[in-house]
Amino acid sequence: MSILIALAASAPASARTGGASVAVPAVKSFKCGTGETTRCPRGSVLRLSGVHLGATSTVIFLGKRGKSDDRRARPQTASPHRVIVEVPQRAYSGRLRVITDDMSATSPRLRVLPKPVPPPIAASGPLGGAFPIRGAHDYGTAINAFGGGRDHQGQDVLADCATPLVAAVAGTVTLTKFQARAGNYVVIKADDGTSQAYMHMLKPAIVKKGDRVASGQPLGDVGQTGRASACHLHFELWTAPGWYEGGAPVDPLPMLKALDAMPT
Ligand SMILES: [Zn+2]
Q: Residue 69 and residue 163: Cα distance in Å, rounded?
């Protein structure tokens, strides 16, 4: 082991030992499936970037000191500059060790987060939830789906401009704003800590930050403000503790479809 450390210290890219060329692996950075680079939830896909990683057979999530909390994972793919691995369900925060044929490399520290739990589908009924668009609509194509292309964090629901928008789930308005990409948007936090975001609204929301809203309460109208090529609602659903407050976006389509199927 001490020889490997000496090699790694003196020659990070490669070294010669007794005439054989030895590629010393190194892990330089992470990218989690959530887009973050220093932390990643259990069960998410994690990309390790570095050099000489092609022969990686195992990634050990070291956790704290000692072996009892070590968790081993087999990479899904390994190439010279990247390894893709799923964060094990019982992994803990700490450094990772990458094992190649006969060497290893220790990564920077990764913060391991609990697995996000998708919120339960809103209970049906007049108080439990409402489909957010009051009018004809459709769910578009794959590009409109959660995850469809370019880190799409929500589901688009296409509808004519000026179709009324209502709150899907009761809660408190935590934000109303205009932003270059989102256009006019509003964020509502439900009592269970999950949040919903409604984007590209025709005009600023008719509710204000701090307002208490019931499900089915009007918020404004469908529009195409911000970066949008057609009138639609971009709807996001985030796990507790909410939208950019430590929660994570989850696919809202099951919830939308459940609300869509409810009699109005
Ligand atoms: Zn969208």
A: 53
